[in-house]
Amino acid sequence: MSWFRSLLLAPLIAVAVLPALDAGGKKKPGPTPPRKIVVLDKRFAQLLPKKAKVETIARGFIWTEGPAWNRAGKFLVFSDIPHNVVHKWQKGKVSVFVKPSGYTGQKPRGGKPGDEPGSNGLLFDADGRLTLCEHGDRRVTRIDEDGKKTVLADNYMGKKLNSPNDLVYHTNGDLYFTDPPYGLPKGAEDPTREMDYCGVYLRKKDGKLILLTKEMTRPNGIALSPDQKTLYVANSDPNEPVWKSFPVKEDGTLGKSKLFVDGAKWVQAKRPGLPDGMKIDVYGNLWATGPGGVWVFAPDGTVIGNIDTGTNTANVAFGDDGSMLYIAANHDICRVKTLTKGKGF
Prior knowledge:
single chain; mainly beta; Neuraminidase; five-stranded mixed β-sheet; five-stranded antiparallel β-sheet; 3 helices; 28 strands; 4% helix; 41% strand; globular
């Protein structure tokens, strides 16, 4: 995501909570929202232990996003976008991992309430290097092993990107990412905006950048199916809160989109949030954040379950041995043990 700016302007499972962490150093968090897991289809029940619970492992942030698991180091990283920082969580301890994470300028941005200068989506590549969607600097970067930052994409046809949001790697090293305007100081109306559309892009391993589609008004979360033949993209527009699927061609470009899931009923029911970040498990189920927490969609598009976080929820990541689902839920980081594994584990 994030549509965080709009938040400022605009059967029950037991919950385990660790002591609150005042990670941002600004204010202590309020009460933990009630959280529950809802089984809508027997296929979802098969993906969770019988005593599955939502556990809150870290609190006190402003707006968490982009969780990503480092397999070699066995730790989680995540963005706190308004604070312009990437945090590291390991064995119950939180520390600063990258700061500044998305805006390196010296001048105040002068953004609206809810300004989001920091990094958004995060992902470790096959070599363990951290890739960041940087809102403030309007680019996708990679931090190499020696600490050097490499810019992977910052413009298309000579025009600056809006504010890259989320990303997914193909196993061949190609990178797909979305580019809505949420990270601009004044959003879509920002005078520095150079694009008149919001794109989904393919950054080839050789550095070539390809605009795949500009049909979506607010492309956000993005994921590839296990066979890498389908690309899923979330649209975080309250007027069109949908998830679309695209066939992936041999050259990595996309075919005609199809509606995968329509989240309008959840928005109309005033469930908190909009379609946002997501991940795929090894069976092809899509674990997608949206209005009402985390929704789980079977490969055929059936809604099979819901992890209701009780708050706006931005993104997820599989970690540990691949079966632990980490959730960026507004001010919190949560997790749920599953019986599946994330794609790539």
